[in-house]
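ok so i was messing around last nite and threw this chain in just to see what happens. nothing serious, just curious
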Amino acid sequence: MFGTTSTGFGVGTSTFGGFGSTTPSTNTLGLGTQENPMKDLEVQSPPDDTVSSLKFSPKADFLIASSWANDIRCWEVRENGQTIPKAQQNHTGPILDCCWHDDGTKVFTASTDKQCKMWDLNSNQAIQVAQHDKPVKTCHWVQAPNYSCLMTGSWDNTLKFWDTRSNNPMMVVSLPERVYCADVVYPMAIVGTAQRGIICYQLENQPSEYKRIDSPLKYQNRCVSIFRDPKKNNQPVGFALGSVEGRVAIQFIQPQNPKDNFTFKCHRSNGTGNANFQDIYAVNDIAFHPVHFCLLATVGSDGKFSFWDKDARTKLKTSEQLNMPITACCFNSKGNIFAYSSGYDWSKGHEYFNPQLKPKIFLRNCTDELKPRKK
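result:
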């Protein structure tokens, strides 16, 4: 934990320069008054450009968001829904991904400036801990029984593993293509590349390739999220893969039955007028519930989020539509708060960019909406 001072991390409010007011919102969770048709709570002082990644701390309700405005920001989320800006750090280029250290005191960031940094929240200092030849697309902390490291994936066609105390990587893995998405749930890592590549790694003892998987989707990988099986000691057993073509694949690494693997359509319009016409949107992010492993959320360029039960193969809820795409999402460690960000994702080209519409981050109390369907 960061200590119990109201400013957190041992950092005084004076060091938050430029991060906006530290005055908390007075709205309770789920009773927001902002321009959101679901009336979800709006996070104070969001980034100035589109959010690329949202992550809750594994230890407490602290939320981080990386953005195309070259910065990463951290908020404390109080039980009554107050969001308090805590601190912020910058890169010299857009930050494409972020993740937490398992102890909840440090954050890692991956940027187009070809670096990854480690941000110590207690001291509010950030140092470079990884380097690539091209933009870094993904970063994930790996906590194994016998080692710990940072896994970074880049558009330079490599996956690298770093001991953060050393300037040189522990291991460099050459890939057939650029890294587009990745996820880690020890002892499994999944990497999605350009040209619809999917590679599974096992991380026990040291990282090694386990198998390559033919993508069940016909279009470009956009996001991937690993799921666990409570019947197998909560071990990771497969992943959900989202594509630019409004579709998600549920894929087991070792399916007991070929029918275990399936795909479903999502983030599509119902069609207007001509019944054959349908708007199809990218799936921008997927998050699995941390308590009920069968439940997941998807968010898309259509400005909606949906909740699903993969075991019951059922949609639990689809949100009303926001005025911008939803770019990232996550659950807190208890699974009662769902965070999601809206911002332009350029999916419709530059002519649809409206500088008057600013990025926002919302928090939703999802306790009642996310319950497994009885079989």
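not much to say yet. Residues 57-177 form a domain with the Methylamine Dehydrogenase; Chain H fold (CATH 2.130.10.10).
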